[in-house]
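Long-time lurker. I teach an intro course on protein structure, and each term I like to show students one example going from raw sequence to a predicted 3D structure in token notation. This year I'd like something fresh instead of my usual example. Would anyone be willing to generate the tokens for the chain below so I can use it in lecture? Attribution to the forum is fine with me.
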Amino acid sequence: MGKKIAITLDRERYMRLDLNAMSVFEDVTGKSLFTIGEGLQEARNVRALLYAAMKSAGEDITLEQVGENITMHNFSMVSEVISKLMTVSYGKPLDEVEEGKK
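-- Reply from a regular --
Happy to contribute to a lecture. Here you go:
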């Protein structure tokens, strides 16, 4: 089971990026996370990734609720958490991510 990463939106929630989350992302967007590249700069893809990762971690939230909780006020924090989620999901230890080690 993949590691869960916390994010604070309407409350503290958890995300996990596993094959189920990747499949939900594909269902919502029609795109693969394996080839998304620069596509994560699009609002709909960010929302879909957060939604898919939260659903995979067992959160009870809708796609629309995710979008309602992301604003320009917290977007840079959301981007940082997505970066951490991707890094940890691809095998880098969380303590190295938090300490900024390479």
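Some talking points for your students: The chain has a mean pLDDT of 86. The first strand starts at residue 5 and ends at 8.
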